[in-house]
Amino acid sequence: MMDLGTYGNSTPMAEKGVTGGYDVPEGVDIRGRYDEEFAKILTVDALQFVVDLQREFRNHVKYALECRREAKRRHNEGAVPGFDPATRCVREGEWTCAPVPPSVVDRRVEITGPVERKMIINALNSGAKVFMADFEDALSPSWENLMRGQVNLKDAVDGTISFHDKARNRVYKLNDQTAKLFVRPRGWHLPEAHILIDGEPATGCLVDFGLYFYHSYAAFRRTQGAGFGPFFYLPKMEHSREAKIWNSVFERAEKMAGIERGSIRGTVLIETLPAVFQMDEILYELRDHSVGLNCGRWDYIFSYVKTFQAHPDRLLPDRVLVGMTQHFMKSYSELLIRTCHRRRAHAMGGMAAQIPIRNDAAANEAALDLVKKDKLREVKAGHDGTWAAHPGLIPVCMEVFTNNMGNAPNQIQTMKREDAAALTEDDLLQRPRGVRSMEGLRLNTRVGIQYLAAWLTGSGSVPLYNLMEDAATAEISRVQNWQWLKYGVELDGDGLGVKVTKELFGRVVEEEMARIEGEVGKEKFKKGMYKEACKIFTRQCTAPTLDDFLTLDAYNHIVIHHPKRSSRL
Fold first, then answer.
1. Which of 107, 117, 148, 184 is an active site residue?
2. Which of 45, 106, 280, 470 is flagged as catalytic?
3. I need a labelling partner for 194 at 20 to 30 A (CA). Which of 421, 427, 436, 453 fits?
4. Known catalytic residue at 184
5. Residues 436, 489: contact at Cβ < 8 Å?
6. pTM more than 0.90
7. Residue 442 falls in the annotated catalytic set
């Protein structure tokens, strides 16, 4: 165990103060509500670890985000992403990632969800091989959600987590056999406005990672990782320099904890268009800490629109038509498989967002059939596992993968996909085909507003129209509406032939708000934040300049700063 007095180059623990009721290291100001449970997470020592990470890496993070802005400027001036000639030696080199830890060699079905207490128990008990507990797109990052999430994860790793559902008079506890736990912190771009370090908001992912790692690494390695871990999913990267920062964060954490280099492992979500041209480089930077890449396909579609926001020749069709059979999406999946297997790492498939339809057997059967076909495509392409949003889908997904993989835990050795070596930049950038329709505009608007209304009231994972939606869906809806408005596209898919204008969009918003009120009921509509969500969503869709992330703008609406308490000794 670590020396709790000091570690590394940290500030001595004696140099501390009291802020907001929490004992804190020097330079830290906590503006979130005081809670005794939260105080068990926000200890001086745990906060000091976060402070050390923030001070060591904040300039690296700022530089990486500045590089993102520079890349956006180039793309807006007409450039397109591509493979970097400077790192050709990495792509062509014969190197491999560190061997996969035995405890996570089989990842054929993974379930994902927010770090809510009941969700964590159900997901760990679900029969999936892995549960990805999410601080990112499936969580509304309020202070309460984030800190309760940390409490819940600590209890889960300790094996003490339980939940009493008073409405059902049922107590939920962990089974003897549970899924392996991965944690997804927020992306590099998101701040944590409730914790100031040296007068600046902390980097959200360093808070998520630092607090969880500090409290849980020892118990996790003993009970879950068989001497390895903890395990993470790393989101929203655009370049290998961002993977390099994560690798350094992992090494810093291992050094602090006194555990072997390469203990911590991470799977990177390839969910931005620039990152698909950096897959080898990302794996290379994390080669001692990597357990593969994942096709984050919904965010990938969002990123395609965002990257080509100034390219009117690359307009997307209705989002329901942008599936994995589109050439640019199929190429992305195949190249990811080839890259990962060449480097001896997992190539994880995408999300099945369907949820069981309990009151319509025929519709439920049709939904499950779609899931089966999607998973069959993935396993036959060579993916080693897949994602499901609901426990009810796990048997279906597991059956498809097991039937096609047999007793093998993965396909790393058997599906090399050398044919994908021939894929070019043009394959990865090919314009998607399909029509644009009034129904597509309406669905984007309806889903975007409803998701945002839920997010503003604390829910980041929202069932809408028999799909489990997270922030990625709202982002696709927003950027597609923005793109169609900016270029006045013609809606050619339903024979109407009308052009998308601000006036048409205004009418659509009004009509869809009335439809939402009719669907959710007057009482819920009145109590919910639908009008506020509508204002934010409409403003974002009609803005002259496209905001990088909807959640960055909306975040200001959920930050609640509490006044400092004079002391708590």
1. 184
2. 470
3. 453
4. yes
5. yes
6. yes
7. no
